[in-house]
Amino acid sequence: VNAENNCIVIFGASGDLTHRKLIPALYNLYQIGRLTEHFSVLGVARTELNDEDFRQKMREALIRSEKAEGETLEKFCSHLYYQAVNTSDSTDYGKLIPRLDELHDKYQTCGNTLYYMSTPPSLYGVIPECLAAHGLNTEEYGWKRIIVEKPFGYDSKTAKALDVQIHRFFEEHQIYRIDHYLGKETVQNLLVLRFSNGLFEPLWNRNFIDYIEITGAESIGVEERGGYYDGSGAMRDMFQNHLLQVLAMVAMEPPAIINADSMRDEVAKVLHCLHPLSEEDVKNNLVLGQYVSSDIHGETVKGYTQEKGVPADSTTETYMALRCEIDNWRWAGVPFYVRTGKRLPTRVTEVVIHFKTTPHPVFSQKAPENKLIIRIQPDEGISMRFGLKKPGAGFEAKEVSMDFRYADLATPSLLSAYDRLLLDAMKGDATLFARTDAVHACWKFVQPILDYKAERGRVYEYEAGTWGPTEADKLIAKTGRVWRKPS
Ligand code: BG6
């Protein structure tokens, strides 16, 4: 299904996200024919630019992304427009009215408008109010939808307040909270793997699963984003949103059908079942870390506090590991070990399902563990590990692997996360967007960790290029387990 005819208004059009992700995503959709000619993009920001200046900037960005050239590029760029608006001044939003009228007219987009807030979060409450002051939120003439980028709030209280602000002017069905992890093919594949195979689902519970690891490792540091990251840390940047969404996909109950309501009901339900963390739980089950300078392959890598925009005495965590549990029938007693960090040895996002061992050891030596490794990125795929007989005398078991590589299925026109999510928003399909109850369940769960961290959370050092502080190894070793070290 193609996108519905519409005008996409991007607030924060001069920002990084617009030229790095949003415009390339729209271009890709255009190129593969998922956007018809009936669309326009109106970039909005404070900077004074005209349509041609904006087109030129976006053209350059698309050429840099090495995706675009020739006639298609020119045709796509002719759909781009720009309007300078002082985004904190309500009266200035009046300038959008004639522009939108003109674009809806020209492209026959029937008033359908998708607002994308790709601005600093301080404007997330302001923009809806200013749009409403000019009636730009009403659905009398065409639909109006609003996409909110992360972070959705800074903690439980601010997330609730933001929701109240947005809900004053937009109804929940108009709000699309984007979490780009939900747009990843392989995160969606978790659902297909679980719910379309009679093989796995019967084993997917406390009777057969020993524990689950979820890893979101990055080898890069904070790069140019030190200023933003220092106010956020791994907990808010990766865990509260992306990794908890992945956890929900792993742990949720099957929805009766895949549509926005039933899917999101199940996601919210499982997130509400996360075992609430007492102060004692946080103390015993959480490890925070910060990378310090080290030599990687003969090159000295900066420590976090030496990064641009980061205060020299910062205690922001660039690593976190947490053991958590889900209080429901399916998962009672199964630990979920979740970790994420910057400047780890490699970039990998994966889920590892560790199955219980056989009840009685028949052979003399310990059998290899049965695990299912679901690789979300890169080298997307699934690997099943189990024991088979080592050829030769005796009955020695060795670990073997059955591997599936996602690339073997994919066609070259695979949609990236932003392609997929923008297309869904333009189709009015909110299945892969976070609903208000799920976002608040995540914040509710994370809040005791934030409180603990603010008061007495210790942040351990780890050398850049290693798998985090040794305390994280001790955390999982308490139950005799070890973290997998993916390469
Ligand atoms: C973003 C975070 O949301 O996700 C970044 O702000 C992080 O810090 C990024 O690097 C990771 O996304 P991906 O798709 O590269 O795993």
From TrEMBL:
Similarity-based family: Belongs to the glucose-6-phosphate dehydrogenase family.
One biological process term in Gene Ontology: pentose-phosphate shunt, oxidative branch
Species classification: Bacteria, Pseudomonadati, Pseudomonadota, Gammaproteobacteria, Pasteurellales
GO-annotated molecular function: glucose-6-phosphate dehydrogenase activity; NADP binding
Record-level GO cellular component terms: cytosol
Residue ranges of domain Glucose-6-phosphate dehydrogenase NAD-binding in the record: 9-189
Binding sites annotated in the UniProt record for substrate: 180, 184, 218, 237, 342
Superkingdom: Bacteria
Function: Catalyzes the oxidation of glucose 6-phosphate to 6-phosphogluconolactone.
Name this protein carries in UniProt: Glucose-6-phosphate 1-dehydrogenase
All copies of domain Glucose-6-phosphate dehydrogenase C-terminal, residue ranges: 191-484
SUPFAM superfamilies (alphabetical): Glyceraldehyde-3-phosphate dehydrogenase-like, C-terminal domain, NAD(P)-binding Rossmann-fold domains
Gene giving rise to this polypeptide: zwf
EC number, UniProt record: 1.1.1.49
Keywords: Carbohydrate metabolism, Glucose metabolism, NADP, Oxidoreductase
